[in-house]
Specification:
Oligomer: single chain
Helix content: 25-40%
Number of helices: 7
Number of domains: 1
Largest sheet: 6 strands, mixed
């Protein structure tokens, strides 16, 4: 039975960063971001504040960790301020390094014109994808799995927030549930989505995925400004 044993339940709230100019409405239209340090746009700033209020209302986190990239750190800073904390940069939450591919700023269709075989692996065999001179999805999965386990023990019985990127959060959720990396595209992650994992006695439990109810009003406000 879940949640029985000698250790407390650790709650890990995984938050994707807010909207940027490179987020165009789904994998087909989005531009590749990776480790390029893209800021939040106006919509993303509104999303970050709405997410901060939602997190502070539902939880009392002991710590807020974030990818060092500014789109994540700005989101994490909003959350941390609402909770009376300061965000902690965590390199293991960093987005994928596309190495020498030069995909930053390109759409999938544009990248496919340059490297069709690599884009095919990206879309159809993500477990085999590796960027030349950069990261593989399997490598990032191992990295984030180690982080989840380490922080779950460090914050045993507490709640923590991790702010990261679409790709990293998908891999974290797959790893926590013991699902293959091949299922990468079966998990959706909208900007500023909230996900929740719970951990006890070495086992992760999935409690919430891609919750964006807290930013629906924010999206309407942003649309009215355009």
């Amino acid at each position: 039975m879940p949640f029985k044993g000698g250790f407390g339940v650790t709650t890990i709230v995984l938050v994707r960063h807010g909207h940027t100019a490179f987020n165009k409405g789904g994998p087909e239209h989005d531009q590749f971001r990776g480790t390029s340090d893209i800021p939040l746009d106006d919509r993303g700033l509104l999303e970050a504040e709405a997410t901060a209020r939602a997190v502070a209302t539902r939880w009392q986190p002991a710590a807020v960790y974030s990818s060092p990239l500014q789109r994540a750190m700005k989101t994490a800073d909003a959350i941390a301020r609402q909770c009376g904390l300061s965000p902690i940069p965590e390199p293991a939450l960093l987005d994928i390094n596309y190495g020498s591919l030069g995909w930053t700023g390109l759409t999938v269709s544009e990248a496919a014109l340059q490297q069709p075989r690599l884009v095919d692996a990206w879309l159809n065999a993500p477990e085999k994808f590796r960027a030349p001179d950069g990261d593989s999805l399997q490598g990032i999965r191992r990295r984030v799995t180690h982080l989840l386990k380490r922080l779950a023990l460090l914050h045993n019985g507490e709640t923590i927030v991790l702010v990261s990127h679409d790709l990293v959060i998908r891999l974290a959720l797959l790893a926590a549930m013991g699902l293959p990396t091949h299922d990468f595209w079966r998990i959706r992650q909208d900007t500023c989505a909230i996900n929740v994992l719970q951990h006890q006695d070495g086992v992760f439990f999935l409690a919430l995925v891609n919750d964006t109810g807290h930013i629906q009003q924010t999206d309407r406000q942003a649309a009215q400004r355009r």
